[in-house]
Amino acid sequence: MDDDRNATQIPILKLLHDMKSHWDSIYYMINCLRTLRQALDCFFQAPAHKDIADRKLNEVDWQILKDLEVILEVPHSFQQSVSSESMLTLSCIMPIFETFIIQWEHLSM
């Protein structure tokens, strides 16, 4: 519920976990966590969970997760572009890789 006591739609998501063979699994986990922020806030506000309320993420934690998601979105996009190609060639991969490098350099500024 929002501040006006209106019901809020929260998407149904699958449980995710880190997979060493999937380079972007952490990106997906952070994205999922940020999507469920409102549900998590409600969970920690419930009286039944007052014993773990100190585990609730604060604004700084959420900002760090947002920053990590932005950073990890670059290799995620790169991996998605590369995996969509059926027959990779150097002439095909180099522009994608250059874009990857430029995007990360831009984030570092």
TrEMBL record:
InterPro entries: RNaseH-like_sf. This is hAT-like transposase RNase-H fold domain-containing protein. It comes from Scleroderma citrinum Foug A.
